[in-house]
Amino acid sequence: MTPWPSLTSKTILEMTEKPFSDSAERNAAPILEVLRHEFSDCTAVLEIGSGTGQHAARFSRSLPHLRWQTSDLDENHSGIHAWVEDAALENLLTPLSLDVMTADVRAKAYDGVYSSNTAHIMSFDGVTRMFELVGKALVDAGVFCLYGPFRQNGNFNTASNAAFDEGLRARHPDMGIRELESLDDLGGDNGLVRVRLYAMPANNHLAVWRKKGK
Ligand SMILES: C[S@@+](CC[C@H](N)C(=O)[O-])C[C@H]1O[C@@H](n2cnc3c(N)ncnc32)[C@H](O)[C@@H]1O
């Protein structure tokens, strides 16, 4: 007798091939509410650092007016492919191979860029490069939404974020929670002006920059 007589082969495939992140599951609903507003006039979104692919599947299903382009380092592609294939949505695209340190993007190919929990994982050079890519990839008046923990005016917003930063730096000295003001400077270098900052659950924020023009 099989231990799970009711499981179909598709369910077993999902369990074995789709990576799952608890935090991505928890933060998806509040992020979606912001993206619903910020991407309401967009048609083509590039996601940088899609991770498991969970956000891409959830957001592209809920925002069918968007063509959602996933991307990440190659090592995460098999998981993202599993989510994309399982979602079977016309507006959800298989991942581009995109390491911010080496990748280039087509100029003005997107009117939205989304990235979540990436800026504290990449080195600051990586974050610098990400803003260069975003500035190039966006059309005039395009929108960049970046979710994660940030420092402001030199301060952590909570002791838990300070401890998280310490843990990141112990893992690798190039990692760490970024100053929002430094990100604004990188935005300025690439034609992006911050237009909003949303306080999100669990001491995170979602920052929105808009590309100048029109
Ligand atoms: C903490 S995970 C977040 C994943 C997903 N966005 C989420 O919120 O669940 C950090 C992501 O940044 C990606 N990443 C790290 N360095 C990168 C780089 N140089 N270029 C592109 N992505 C990178 C990782 O591969 C990973 O998917």
Give me a quick take on this structure.
With 214 residues, the chain is an alpha/beta fold.
Topology:
Elements: H1 9-17, H2 22-38, E1 44-48, H3 54-62, E2 67-72, H4 77-87, E3 92-97, E4 110-116, H5 124-137, E5 138-148, E6 150-151, H6 159-171, E7 178-179, H7 180-189, E8 192-200, E9 204-211
Helix pairs in contact: 2-3, 3-4, 5-7
This protein binds S-adenosylmethionine (SAM).
S-adenosylmethionine binds next to loops.
What can you see in these coordinates?
The protein has 214 residues and is of the alpha/beta class. The chain has a single domain (9-211), classed as Vaccinia Virus protein VP39 (Rossmann fold, 3-Layer(aba) Sandwich). 39% of the residues lie in helices and 26% in strands. The protein contains seven helices and nine strands. The strands form two sheets. A seven-stranded mixed sheet has the order 3-2-1-4-5-9-8, with helices on both faces. Helix 3 (54-62) links the parallel strand 1 (44-48) and strand 2 (67-72). Helix 3 (54-62) runs parallel beside helix 4 and helix 5 (124-137) crosses helix 7. It starts with 8 loop residues before the first helix and ends with a strand. 35% of the residues are buried. The model is unreliable at 1-14 (pLDDT under 50). Residues 21, 24, 48-52, 55, 72-73, 76, 98-101, 116-118, 121-122, 126 line the site of S-adenosylmethionine (SAM).
